[in-house]
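Q&A FORM
Asked by: J.P.
Topic: structure of DNA-binding transcriptional regulator, GntR family

PROVIDED:
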Amino acid sequence: MLRSQDIARSLEQQIVFGRLHPGQRLIEDELLAQFDATRHQVRSALEALVSEGLATKVRNKGVHVRSYTPTEISELYEIRDILQTAAIRRMPLPCPPETVAHLQKLCDAHCAATAPHDLLTLNDAFHETIFALCGNRMLADEVAAHTRATHPIRSRGFFDAEYLSIARREHQQMVDALRDGDRDALIALNSRHIERPKQRYLEMRAALDLA
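REPLIED BY: S.T.
REPLY: Here is the structure written out as tokens.
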């Protein structure tokens, strides 16, 4: 039997991979059967998703995967850009050779990965390693938390070959900028890297609204 934390992480991955869609209701009885869990464990997992911004809870309507309005999306990504730029400005550059070597291994592994779980794990490890370089644990944690909150927005990128190719190329460019100590290039790269999924999601929402 899984712990509530394991259930929450499994649901988070299902949101990232697009198996659970924005606005979709998370039904307790279905989750009880899916995870062979107790009701307490399922409710604790759902509460964790709500606290992390991945789901919302409405009285008498249950828990749903978070669905953002266009304004909320723009505001969330603006905060991400502010936090990540602040973290990059604090990083001592150029990076030590051993850190660059570690990031290069993560970058290469991400390029070779095909399974969605591996892509997510390696992508998260790559970015968390970069932002840990800022030397401020609380700032790095805020970067990670706001990144996690965008999971419902980023989901389709894991299955789009062109999107994935661009992301991998930008990862390599980030490693190069860290090695060369090019802070301005890294800031610009980071902003482009997080802007693409935002625009993609907004375009998708607009198309659905017109349908």
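FOLLOW-UP: The chain has two domains: 4-65, 70-210.
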